């Protein structure tokens, strides 16, 4: 059986500078322009990881009439 490998692309990330801490965050998901590590509160530096492409799912948009009927 062959394993199918996903297409990888370079993704900008922030990673923790603490060698014991393995935390990293996609740059687009970071809380600020220079975030602190959410686990150890240490500094983070920019880097790049080769990751599978992120699939963005769209939320279903309710029609106005459907939303209004719950209010009455």
What descriptive keywords fit this protein?
three-stranded antiparallel beta sheet, 11% helix, Znf_PARP, 72 residues, zinc, mainly beta, extended, metal-binding
Structural class from helices and strands?
mainly beta
Q: What coarse outline follows from CA principal-axis ratios?
A: extended
Biggest β-sheet description? 3 strands, antiparallel
| Mean pLDDT across residues | 84
Structural Rg? 19 Å
Strand order of the largest sheet: 2-1-3
Number of helices: 1
The SSE order reads EEEH
Structure description:
4% of the residues are buried. This protein has one helix at 64-71; strands spanning 8-16, 24-26, 44-52. The model has no long low-confidence stretch (mean pLDDT 84). It has a domain at 11-54. It has a 3-stranded antiparallel β-sheet with strand order 2-1-3, with no helix packed on it. Helix content is 11%, strand content 29%. The protein is mainly β and 72 residues long.
